[in-house]
Amino acid sequence: MKTFDSISGISRFLHPAKKQGKTIGFVATMGALHRGHLTLMQKAKNENDILVVSVFVNPLQFNNPEDLEKYPRNIEHDRMLLEEVGCDVLFNPGVKEMYPEPGSTQYDFGLLEKVMEGPSRPGHFNGVAVVVKKLFDIIRPDKAYFGEKDFQQLAIIQKLVKMENLPVQIVPCPIVRENDGLAMSSRNERLTAGKRQIAPFVYQTLKEAAKKSSTMTPDEVRLFVRNRFKDEPDFQLEYFEIADDRELQPVSNWNEAGGILGFVAASLENVRLIDNMRII
Ligand code: PAF
To answer: Model-level pTM?
Structure first.
């Protein structure tokens, strides 16, 4: 595996390969890699000539400095997993390399950023879009793979690609779960053993909500989920929403959109867990 920390270094390596007609599959990460990431990478590896992975904890997308500071980092462990999965190129730049000047780009994602993670984490999606656009410009991938756990982020990136006419195909990848249903996330590492045991409550509640959709209206399901969380004081529910799968706007009946999902964000001992599940 080749490793680069500079834009000029990775460009010198990748651009000739691209000129020779080699295809590039790209997985952007903030490190602390887990099986969810590796599934994306395996798919990218199978579908392309070269697998490029970036590991960069992007300060621009953290609205909470404590969250940035506590974000798990373990590049040596990440390197080991990347070697195992057969990653060809690791891009691991520092903050100065990515942001030599403070950025001023402001995207407008319209309704998509007005719901759920948008108001909960002001500036987050702009930070994601700025770094993803930079990474696409540097790496020039043919295909880029993103997990559906961050469903709203995926929708934002799909919109960014359209808005900026970026020559890359976005490949959505299903959520990867632990055996007990907990959606895999780098943040799970921060849960103590006791709280890790109860964390699958988020997934179980989403499953129950999806079932209730056969007998309840969306508003009734919203109330049902909020009450379930009230009974579990270890969890602080930030939002539960039922929304369409395109603009992610709340729905008031099940016929309102072709695709509908339930979305949840909740904190467990200050670790923020997000998850979602398709209902229709
Ligand atoms: O999903 C993530 O890990 C990050 O938001 C991403 C896409 C790597 C951008 O920093």
So the answer is: 0.97
